[in-house]
Amino acid sequence: MNRTPFTNIVKRFTKEVDLYRRVIAHPRCPRVTRICLGAAIVYAISPIDLIPDFIPVLGYVDDILILPLLIFIALRFVPKELIEEVRAQTVN
Fold first, then answer.
1. Are 42 and 31 in contact (CB under 8 A)?
2. At what angle do helices 5-25 and 31-45 cross, to 10 degrees?
3. Would you say the C-alpha torsion 43, 45, 51, 57 has a positive or negative sign?
4. 38 and 30 in contact (C-beta within 8 Å)?
């Protein structure tokens, strides 16, 4: 079967999301990671934004900046050894 590039991207994205879900559930995951990712989820689903979405262009700028920033901060606090350990467990 010949897969499209989009299918490969979606498959890799879902694998990464599953990996980080397992990392967050791990007991050695830092608290700051859980707090930042929780804040990102709450901000993403919350109807309240810093800049309302009905304002053209600017309404989505806060979503484009805040959500990736929270995720980036959260993942920076996870030890690389923990990610490698969980990745090795999911492969086996």
1. no
2. 130
3. positive
4. no
Write the single-letter amino acid at 57: V
Q: pLDDT tens digits for 22-57? A: 988 999 999 999 999 888 888 888 877 777 777 888
Q: What tens digit of pLDDT does each residue of 68-81 get?
A: 999 899 989 999 99
> Is the Cα torsion angle 17, 24, 22, 83 positive or negative in sign?
positive
> In the numeric block, which tokens belong to residue 14?
């879902």
pTM of this prediction?
Answer: 0.69
- String of b and e for 16-45 (b: at least 16 CB within 10 Å)? eeeebebbbeeeebeeebeebbebbeebee
